[in-house]
Design a protein that fits this description.
- The chain has one domain (about 1-25, about 45-65).
- Helices cover about 10% and strands about 40% of the residues.
- The protein is built from two helices and four strands; from the N terminus they run H-E-E-H-E-E.
- It has a four-stranded antiparallel β-sheet, with no helix packed on it.
- The radius of gyration is 17 Å and the shape is elongated.
Length: about 70
């Protein structure tokens, strides 16, 4: 899995032995989109960072969520 999505930004082992991996990323705006071509407001908010979290037990993903 790490080869596909990369090393997590943080990792923690829980008391039950499961492991939690966390990634944070900011969506990137694409230039040349239809919004840009037809005019977009400079006052529009920029995309907010996204946090993705996986909980693994014995190397198997048992929970996933996004914040």
């Amino acid at each position: 899995m790490l080869a596909v999505i990369g090393k997590p930004d943080s990792a923690a082992t829980l008391d039950d032995g499961s492991v939690v991996w966390k990634w944070q990323y900011a969506p990137v705006e694409q230039s040349g989109s239809l919004v840009t071509l037809f005019g977009s407001s400079k006052d529009e908010p920029s995309p907010q960072p996204v946090i993705c979290i996986l909980r693994l037990e014995n190397g198997v993903v048992v929970e996933k969520w996004r914040d």
